[in-house]
């Protein structure tokens, strides 16, 4: 086999393995039927009953059947269940169905609110609260929604997880260091009304609960995202790190703030409580439609809820240090992201600022030595910067056009964060494939003619990513990791290349750069697509080009290193 083919095979192997590891970050546990631990199979039994019929607040009889099932199941476990009820006169909310089935925010609510509250007592009354809403969606307010959801995922997943937790802890009353509270809320789908009333009137929630986990669902399958936290989350994330198979990105909270979505967790944040929010996102097409039914559930996703939540409960309830109301108070946020399957990287805002400054200094040092040693030409570097910026803008425009055409042909309104169409993964993948193909075509043409251009284009890519990383460190810290680490590793790779032609040192650093880029971007870009839909292809394409501006030149630099080594070996 010719040497050049072997070189490309080696590079391809690094890329393929890194890509596969990136996909594996999103892998799910197998569903369990072991009743000694959290069992998705058992949770599915609860879910089968809960999702037999649509049970929105407008389906009064079915809605009451679900509430009574929850009440009787909890009592069957031996719990005392508090029923927190409010009449329309007591809560005075609006948003009700008009005679033609439309939700109108000026029509007074005509139904009672009925929440269920359970205490699993610990030695301390201070405890964590787990929440899920038991009403399903009975109306449609956005394109693609169809009245009459069976609520299997939204929020049957959350309700069944809470019931399974209640089963697991039914014999531990009084044995725990800190208490557990469970709240099954009503009327989330019409306005978060059940959680709003708890937040307004529940003295135990205000005075004894210092940590909240809300369990939601937007899709019906895929990994369970810990997608939202309270602010100043340093101590919150320390507790979350106990999760098994954690799946979380600090970028997600920033994205969620621009989404047209709210959950019961919003009511909790409004009263200053610390906590985290979970949901599956995959297959939005089933969301808020009759297809959200038992036949479409994913037991592995349900198991993933348990895999993350149960270790957190165990740590919290077995360690007395959490039994202090202000335990989760902190003065800064954390940056966090999955770097390998089951591995969550976490560091503080302060550390992010320090490394951002060091990154800028390192880049400046690299530029100086690269210029002195003839690795870069100022004019050509500026041209490279202009071309990379131009590619980013062109890719973003192409992404917008692609998403707009998808919405147009599907007959749905275009929105930046919500274009709901079936098989939307096809235009998402096609858009990325076209952008990638054009960039590789340009690289082959350019780098084959100009030996120095690879270094200059990688420098340009690193500069742009570092610029975004530095700005987001101070403006949107949760997103900074996505830009900073590829830029920093690229900077070190280029700096080392200025001083040595050693094959192994250069190849190792360039390979590490490719690995980091793929491990960060493969799961995160797909997750962002699920979160913001193909409507956000503009932003997705922009984020796609930035790491490619580092990755593609680095691949060609590796090829040159291999060819140079082979040439030296022959001589």
Explain how this protein is built.
By secondary structure, the protein is of the alpha/beta class. Helix content is 55%, strand content 15%. It is built from 18 helices and 11 strands. The strands form 3 sheets. The chain has a 7-stranded mixed β-sheet, with helices on both faces. A two-stranded antiparallel ribbon has the order 2-3. A two-stranded antiparallel ribbon has the order 10-11. A hairpin with a 2-residue loop joins strand 10 and strand 11 (343-348). The longest helix is centred in the last third of the chain and has 34 residues, at 537-570.
Strand order in the largest sheet: 1-4-6-5-7-9-8
Mean pLDDT: 93
Total helices: the number is 18
Task: Give unreliable regions as ranges.
Answer: none
Radius of gyration: 26 Å
Strand segment tally: 11
Shape: elongated
What's the helical proportion of residues? Answer: 40-55%
The major beta sheet can be summarized as: 7 strands, mixed
Strand content: 5-15%
Order of helices and strands: HHHEHEEEEHEHHEEHHHEHEEHHHHHHH
Structural class: alpha/beta
CA-CA gap between termini: 19 Å
Keywords, separated by commas or semicolons:
571 residues, alpha/beta, seven-stranded mixed beta sheet, 18 helices, 15% strand
Short overview:
The chain has 571 residues and is of the alpha/beta class. Helix content is 55%, strand content 15%. The longest helix is centred in the last third of the chain and has 34 residues, at 537-570.
């Amino acid at each position: 086999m010719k040497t050049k083919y072997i070189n490309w095979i080696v590079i391809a192997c690094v890329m393929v393995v890194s890509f596969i590891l990136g996909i594996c970050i999103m892998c799910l546990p197998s569903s369990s039927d072991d009743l000694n631990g959290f069992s998705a199979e058992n949770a599915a039994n609860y879910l089968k009953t809960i999702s037999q019929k649509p049970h929105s607040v407008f389906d009064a009889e079915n809605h009451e059947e679900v509430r009574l099932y929850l009440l009787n199941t909890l009592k069957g476990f031996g719990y005392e269940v508090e029923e927190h009820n409010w009449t329309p006169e007591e809560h005075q909310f609006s948003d009700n169905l008009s005679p033609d089935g439309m939700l109108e925010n000026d029509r007074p609510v005509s139904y009672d609110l009925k929440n269920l509250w359970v205490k699993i007592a610990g030695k301390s009354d201070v405890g964590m609260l787990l929440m899920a809403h038991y009403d399903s969606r009975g109306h449609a307010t956005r394109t693609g929604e169809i009245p009459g959801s069976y609520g299997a995922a939204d929020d049957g997943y959350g309700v069944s997880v809470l019931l399974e937790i209640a089963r697991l802890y039914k014999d531990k009353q009084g044995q725990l260091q800190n208490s557990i509270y469970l709240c099954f809320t009503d009327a989330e789908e019409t306005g978060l009304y059940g959680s709003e009333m708890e937040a307004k009137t529940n003295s135990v929630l205000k005075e004894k609960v210092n940590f909240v986990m809300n369990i939601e669902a937007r899709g019906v399958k895929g990994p369970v995202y810990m997608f939202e936290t309270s602010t100043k989350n340093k101590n919150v994330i320390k507790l979350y790190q106990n999760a098994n198979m954690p799946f979380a990105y600090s970028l997600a909270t920033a994205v969620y703030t621009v989404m047209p979505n709210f959950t019961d967790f919003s009511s909790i944040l409004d009263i200053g409580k610390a906590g985290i929010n979970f949901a599956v996102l995959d297959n939005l097409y089933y969301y808020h439609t009759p297809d959200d039914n038992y036949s479409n559930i994913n037991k592995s996703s349900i198991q993933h809820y348990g895999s993350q939540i149960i270790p957190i409960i165990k740590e919290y309830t077995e360690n007395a240090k959490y039994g202090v109301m202000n335990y989760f108070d902190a003065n800064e946020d954390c940056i966090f992201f999955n770097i390998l399957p089951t591995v969550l990287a976490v560091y503080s805002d302060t550390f992010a600022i320090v490394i951002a400054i060091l990154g800028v200094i390192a880049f400046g040092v690299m530029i100086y030595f690269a210029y002195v040693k003839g690795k870069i030409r100022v004019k050509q570097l500026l041209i490279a910067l202009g071309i990379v910026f131009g590619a980013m803008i062109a890719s973003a425009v192409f992404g917008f056009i692609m998403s707009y055409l998808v919405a147009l042909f599907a007959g749905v309104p275009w929105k930046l964060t919500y274009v709901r169409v079936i098989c939307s993964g096809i235009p998402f993948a096609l858009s990325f494939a076209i952008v990638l193909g054009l960039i590789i075509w340009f690289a082959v043409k350019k780098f084959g003619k100009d030996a120095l251009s690879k270094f200059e284009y990688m420098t340009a890519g690193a500069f742009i990513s570092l610029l975004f990383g530095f700005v987001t460190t101070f403006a949107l810290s949760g997103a900074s990791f996505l830009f900073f680490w590829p830029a920093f590793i690229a900077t070190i790779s280029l700096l080392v290349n200025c001083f040595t032609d050693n094959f192994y040192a250069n190849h190792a650093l360039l390979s590490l750069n490719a690995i980091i880029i793929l491990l960060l971007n493969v799961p995160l870009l797909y997750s962002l697509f699920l979160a913001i839909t193909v409507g956000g292809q503009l932003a997705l394409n922009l984020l796609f080009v930035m790491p490619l501006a580092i990755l593609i030149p680095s691949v060609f630099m590796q090829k040159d290193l291999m060819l140079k080594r082979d040439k030296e070996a022959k001589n």
